[in-house]
Design a protein that fits this description.
The chain is of the alpha/beta class. It contains 40 helices and 33 strands. It is an enzyme of class 5 (isomerase).
Amino acid sequence: MDIDDDRVIIDDFSQESNPYIQFSGQQAHLADIFFNTSAAPVRRVKSKNDENSFNTDFLIPKYRLQPPLSARNISNAPNFVSGSQIPSDTQTFSLNGLKPVSAIPEKFRCIFSQFPFFNLIQSKVFDDVLFTDKSIVVSAPTGSGKTVIFELAIIRLLMKNEQVKTVYMGPVKALCSEKCREWKEKFAYLGLTCCELTSDTEGNEYTIIKNSDIILTTPEKWDKLTRCWSTNEGLFQLVKLFLIDEVHLLNCETRGPTLEAVVSRMKMLQTTGSKKMADKMRFMAVSATIPNADDIGKWLSYDDVLAISVKVGDEMRPVKLKKVVLSYPCSENWTQFRFDMSLNYKISNVIQKHSEGKPTLVFCSTRNGVIETARVIGKENEASMRVEHKQKWFITSNTIKDAKLKEFIKCGVGFHHAGLDLSDRQQMEALFGNGELPILVATSTLAMGVNLPAHLVVIKSTFKYQGGTMCEYTESEILQMIGRAGRPQFDVSATAVIMTKYNLKLKYENLIGGTQLIESYLHKHLIEHLNAEIVLRTISNVGVLLIWIRSTFLYVRVLKHPKLYGIQGGLAKDALESKLLDICVRDINTLVQNEIILMGEDGFDLNPTQSGRLMARYCLAFETMKLFIKSTSDASINDLVNLVASCSEFSDITLRTSEKKILNTLNKDKQQASIRFPMEGKIKTREMKINCLIQASLGNICVQDSGLNQDVLKIMRLSQRISKCLADFVFASRNDYKLVLNAVLLSKCLRAQLWENSYSVAKQLDKIGVVLATHLVRAGLTSFKKIANTNPRELEMILNRHPPFGNQILKSVGNLPNYQIEIEEAKPKLNSTQITITLKLTNIQYIAENSTFSPINCFLLIGNAENQIVFKQKITNNALMQSGQWTRKIDVEKCKKGNLLHIHVINEQLVGVDINMTFHPTNNELDDHLLAQFDFSTITPTKSSKNQINQTNPILVDLTESPDQTRRQCNHLCANKSTCLHLCCKEGVKIKTKRKFGSDESSAKQTRLDLVEEFQKNSTNFANNQNKRLSEKFIPSIGIDEPKIQNQYDEPVFSLKFDYSNAFSSDENTPPEIQVHQEQNVEMSGNQTTSTINEE
């Protein structure tokens, strides 16, 4: 027969049940060439010269030649001979237009050892990739071997013998992990090291980059890393090759702007850095079939070097894909949920028609939708199952943990979503990947993660639940799900079915036909990225702003389709640039108004503020920073938890109906542990859910739901970043004592995942988890000090561990910082005094000898009675480790509301090592104006009584009467109070009556005179006891705080403050603060004493 351009002649074996055909002798290498690269039908003919031998000609479409199957699939082929086993006497074989692996230098051929020829797509760009430095954009179907193009580009760098770095940017962490494992094995022979940098990466990222040749990361992670360009400029200058996988992610409204901003930044930094790059960075981008790949090519081009764009249609796909869009009616009265539910009863017919009895993957938008769809399919599938299949799946179901999955797997149907236990998810992936499980129902996240190709892919509904509302899938998500159809090692063809509404049929037909344009969404997140570039100094003035705009994909698309971006059409290029500049200037003015950036007096220069730097450093949204700016001066920890839960970074967290019962139990429950700050009413919003889960995590409350546990991991990771930014922001820009204190505490608590007053401090130690920490709490070991004082053998008995576990625990405790504060007061001045604070690290020698690293960083915070910060300082490891102490002199100004200082040493990471104390300096000039300003008319005088004064604190007086001696039943939930061992259950609890205050003016004046007289008498006694003489001009300053009543059973508490600093010389002790208290025992913290007051 004649031979055409694309084909050679062989017999037809397309009907063979086994795609692996056994060849003998010299034909084995030809089987390897074909079957190791494609699963298409094969024909062979006998030799024209010898009818007993096979001819070496094949009828192979060019696009069928693909990169190798995995080692697993090759090993499963019967009597299969690999390419490495080709006999030496075999004749040379070549195909039209296909580049052989031998075309690259010999030392690099090991990278492509599994196949001898590159496929048509790879061969088409071979010369441009391997022998030029031009940027390239390749648009080709999923599974067409685009990864090999990346590997060729890496080899191009190696051929130039340059010590440079390569960055691979994938859309999701799972894909980065997969590529990292694959390339570690491939490039190890060439001496290249690969590293994965995602949100799961631990350790110093910049050290990892320095020690690696190929960095695999996501857009969000690389965005965060490059925002610190100025401190690591030399490191980033080494990046010469930038690989972008799935570049059609640009069309995603939430993640596309980050990808666009990062790539534009990498282009800008080459010309705006202090060391301009001599060689331009090369960009390689691949995507699914898109019509405007040329636009992406223009975006990645330089002024002097244009990028190459290569577009390949579905005809080059290794497995031919049939795409079907099925539309269904949807009543105007139907919600999207109801329409989604109606599709459940139509899926079985779709599977029966298109699956051909091969594995089917069904994508649903929600977890509940996955379970309900699996239930309906399983019910219909059960009736047609054979007995042997039922027995097989019954045995398999015994290894499943989830009850519903165990039930459905008996019917031959599995489901997969992030809420499943990890072992169940892995088992579903293994069963479906091996072809044993016929039907798997999963959420759309599976398409972006694990690679599980199927013969049939069904997308049930094109809407998903996100941010509390139903919205359509992005084009990227649809293409990614469709891309799972087709198994090159098993299938010749595959099918993808989209089930949607009638009015959306045309839209999705255009999408799957490759006619859906890729657009930019940078303008919707422009304000955040403008701030980041200003902080990075890629934009330093309004003049540079236009240069940055021209480096974006937004600029390319606005020139072609301005109306889509709210700009009038038909304008010239200069006018369009002016419109874009106006949009940017508008956002810059918004940043200036909120003091996030500063504009020069000439309106030209742009400079970041501390707020802007923090916003860029922590990658936070502008709306989140506005919440920080509006935070109140006396915000409590509860208020700040509410603030964190309201941030826009949690917009993709959803509140599911099935979760409300569990969340309401966590919020309020008398029968079991609940959260620290219960919320009013039921859990109804996303913010309430986030708040509840944050508090549950900090309180070590177990959440009995695997789906919620997955949400907790994400919420805690985001909340740690948000709270750290909040703490840094208020610490740097606010002078409100309570706000700064609570923000720093909350940041530390979220990092340690414990409340600041938690008993489970041991959870922070190595090898101690929640369970062992609970054992220690039950044993009364609720602090590091108590643990350190416990015998190691006793610890092992409590924790049920063998020696030397107890010694290891004690060593870990010994490595924790042990702070100590010393305060010295200098001679007081008229309205201020000077104190010297010394912070010591008492166990510095032990830490230096036994620990490689100890979290010593801490905050020193001093606040006064007026909610103002007297002093604040962050003290680093180096400052304390050099000499073991840190000293600072501090001037303390006079405070009208009292002299008491609150001093806090707060470790940045650890709970349970902080110091909280109070100090009362002698810095007030004594006068009577405070007493004169106080209104005593609201106080009813009590009957005169003589009080016995304790000499250790002679200035405490009791002005109250004894309360009524009545009793009430206690609040304990004991079943039988008469037999209970609680004393309060037997005798009851004393009820304290609420005090009444009168308004008799004359009585109030008499009370004032009595107080002054009593004070002067007690002050004289105090001076006599100390052998000191009071000044003749001694006039006290007295202030009485408003009475504090927490509930109806509490008695009012008065605080009288007497200032007598003129009464003593600087070397004399100052009497403690005067309190008028109705309780018998009065405790005073810091330098105050404890006194007992008895009525005479």
